[in-house]
Specification:
Distance between the termini of chain B: 25 Å
Order of helices and strands of chain B: HHEEHHHHHHH
Order of helices and strands of chain A: HHEEEHHHH
Largest sheet of chain B: 2 strands, antiparallel
Strand content of chain A: 5-15%
Oligomer: heterodimer
Shape of chain B: elongated
Number of helices of chain B: 9
Structural class of chain B: mainly alpha
Strand content of chain B: under 5%
Helix content of chain A: 55-70%
Structural class of chain A: alpha+beta
Strand order of the largest sheet of chain A: 1-2-3
Chain lengths: ~170, ~260
């Protein structure tokens, strides 16, 4: 009887197998309501002009889970972050972490934004240990954006210096 | 599927399958203290030097029992599902790799039909339904074996999980965290692909991206096969990382198609 049952179960078992073993199976885990809030009402989704000299773009990936995250900041002339946008393709915790990150960097100076730690993000969103790496990804995205901005500013300065040298030597030779 | 649920024995079987799936991520506290890391076995890879199989996940810290728990007879082969003497079901052998559990060669190229055949063959004998009239110990061992079979099948069926498992066996799992060495133009490409999927307005558009992704995945599978066959594990790791990203895009395409249709 058991064998008959198994034989008749066998092919649906494979069907079941495919349905049960695909990554879309919902296991017993639930997101904190703060994470759900950021997921359903994400703040600052979008893009800034990456060619703008005052925009820093941070693009990071997490190989273990295959998440990709882009975070951009717009900095004014006094070095204050006036706008931030993000786009994240990954789990709810990754989306929430990057959404929160864009909220937090706004209004901060570049140096202040550097101090944002993944542990603060994780604490605010009540991330479980298994999702801590999502907050780490967000911190790395912030740092990458700031680094890109600094690089562009240095480029701008270098170009400015070169221009003034050129104009000085042109004046001297005339 | 309906017949599976209607039959009273089937519903128990169905529950057992669900339990097996749920249990197929074993914690060491659930399982009997047997089958710890045993002596590493030498298995030749498809080409190149012998690959040392060092199991990364084992079912407990004790070494595998040399013989049957009931009659003491030593096992004729490993892993032993049943005692060759008294036919009692045995607990999982923690030193066996998932390849050994399903009787496959330790290689990236796999005949998935053979795999499925072997999986079903083993489940027919080890499924907890067969042990409902047996002792509590045998029921427990059959549940653990059945869960292990599910895990082995699930891991070895798809190239991505199979490749990642092979890296784990080499002591090279993909660590969690940001990849600081990632190529920015590659990440940008992924970003754009993901955006394209999200913005697809018709099933045809989404399907086109899906098809391109499938082609890319096939390419990567061949490259990974080549790298693993030559024992080039670092190269295989980089390719498997790429594959993970593209597999996620494939999933997103499916979700988008569900939304659009």
């Amino acid at each position: 009887m058991a064998m008959f049952c198994l034989q008749s179960c066998a092919s649906p078992l494979v069907l079941f197998g495919r349905r049960l073993f695909t990554p879309r199976v919902i296991t017993h885990c639930s997101y904190h309501k703060k994470v759900v809030d950021h997921y359903e009402n994400p703040r600052n989704v979008g893009s800034l002009d990456k060619n703008d000299q005052n925009v820093g773009t941070g693009l990071v990936g997490a190989p273990a889970c295959g998440d990709v995250m882009k975070l951009q900041i717009q900095v004014d002339d006094s070095g204050k972050i006036v706008d931030a946008r993000f786009k994240t393709f990954g789990c709810g915790s990754a989306i929430a972490s990057s959404s929160l990150a864009t909220e937090w960097v706004k209004g901060k100076s570049v140096d202040e934004a550097l101090k944002i730690k993944n542990t603060d993000i994780a604490k605010e969103l009540c991330l479980p240990p298994v999702k801590l790496h999502c907050s780490m990804l967000a911190e790395d995205a912030i740092k990458a954006a700031l680094s890109d901005y600094r690089f562009k500013q240095r480029d701008k300065q270098d170009n400015g210096v070169k221009a003034s040298i050129t104009s000085c030597s042109a004046t001297a030779s005339s | 599927m309906l017949s599976l649920l209607a039959h009273p024995r089937s519903s128990r079987g169905f529950r057992a399958v669900i339990n097996c799936v749920a249990a197929s991520r074993p914690s060491s506290s659930d399982l009997p203290p047997r089958g710890g890391p045993g002596p590493a076995e030498r298995r030749p890879s498809r080409a190149g030097p012998p690959v040392r199989v060092v199991p990364r996940r084992s079912y407990g810290s004790a070494p595998p029992a040399p013989g049957c728990w009931r009659c003491g007879q030593s096992h004729a082969e490993r892993p032993a599902f049943f005692c060759s003497g008294c036919r009692a079901v045995q607990p999982p052998d923690g030193s066996a790799s998932l390849f050994q559990v399903l009787g496959c060669n330790h290689s990236f190229t796999l005949d998935t039909q053979q795999l499925q055949k072997r999986y079903l063959q083993l489940q027919r004998t080890l499924h907890p339904d067969n042990f409902s009239q047996k002792t509590k110990e045998e029921q427990e061992y059959s549940e653990h074996q059945s869960a292990l079979l599910n895990r082995a099948y699930r891991t070895l069926l798809k190239p991505l999980s199979r490749g990642l498992y092979m890296l784990e066996l080499e002591g090279m799992p993909i660590e969690e965290g940001t990849d600081s060495a990632a190529d920015p133009s590659f990440l940008m490409q992924l970003m754009e692909l993901n955006e394209a999927v999200e913005e697809a307005l018709t099933p045809e558009e989404a399907n086109r991206i899906g098809q391109d992704t499938k082609v890319k995945l096939k390419e990567l599978t061949a490259q990974i096969d080549d790298a693993l066959g030559k024992g080039e594990h670092q190269a295989a790791k980089a390719l498997l990382i790429q594959m993970k990203y593209f597999a996620n895009i494939e999933e997103k395409v499916k979700e988008q198609l569900d939304k659009l249709m």
